[in-house]
Amino acid sequence: MTDADLAAHLAHVAGRILLHVRDSGIFSAKALGKAGDQTANQFLVHALREQRPDDGLLSEEMQCDGTRLDHQRVWIIDPVDGTREYGEARTDWAVHVALAIDGVAQTGAVALPGLDLVLRSDRPTPLPAAAAIPRMVVSRTRPAKEAVDVAQAIGAELLPMGSAGAKAMAIVRGEAEIYLHTGGQYEWDSCAPVAVAAAHGLHVSRVDGRPLVYNQPDSYMPDLLICRPEWAERVLTIVWETRAPAA
After folding, report:
1. Which of 166, 182, 193, 245 is deepest in the core (most CB within 10 A)?
2. What is the DSSP letter of 97?
C-alpha cells in the first residue's frame, strides 16, 4: 500500500475496532475511554511497525523513547481523538493517522467512525460553498477566549464541537469556515487533520502565521488555525491585534 492508503486503511479499521469495543456493553462509561484508547493504540502501533518498520512513530498512548527524532519519516497517531465524545456515543470524535516527513504533515487520514467517514490527504474534494455568515468551531466544554473574541469581531456563529479532528474536518466538509485553537494541543491532535486540510486547499498555520512543524523534541503545540483561505488574513490580523501590547 502507498503511505496514503495505509493511513486511511488503519484509521478506518481502528475506528471499526473502537465501535465494537463500545458496542460490547462490557465497559462502564469511566472505563470505556481507556479501553478504547489502549485497544486502538495496540492495533495501530503493531500495524505500523509491521508495515513501516524503518519509520519513526509517535502516539498519544505510547511512551516516547526519543528514537523518532532520528527519522525523517515519522508516523504520528491519535487512536481516539475526543475520548469523552467517544464514551458518550457522540459522532464528533476521530482517529488520526499521519505521516510527517522532515517536520511537514505530508500524508494523513482522519476517520470519523460515528459517521462512517474517512477523509484523506490524497483524495481531496472541492470545498463546498462558504456560508454568508462565517461559522467557527470551538470546544464544547472550554471555548478559547481568543476564538470567542475573533468570532465577536467578525460576527461569526460559534459551533461547539468535540475533538480536534472533528472540528478540522467540519471545515473540510463545509460545515464551518474557521477553526482557531489557542488552548494548547499536542502533535497527535493536529498532524493528520492538518495534512487532510492542507490537501483540500485550506489555510493551516500557527496563529502567528508560522508553519506547523512536527516531530519536535517537545510534542506540545500551543495553537492552530485551520480555515478557508479567504478568512486567513483577517483572523491572523485580529489575533495579532489582540495579543499586541498596549502602546
Report:
1. 193
2. E
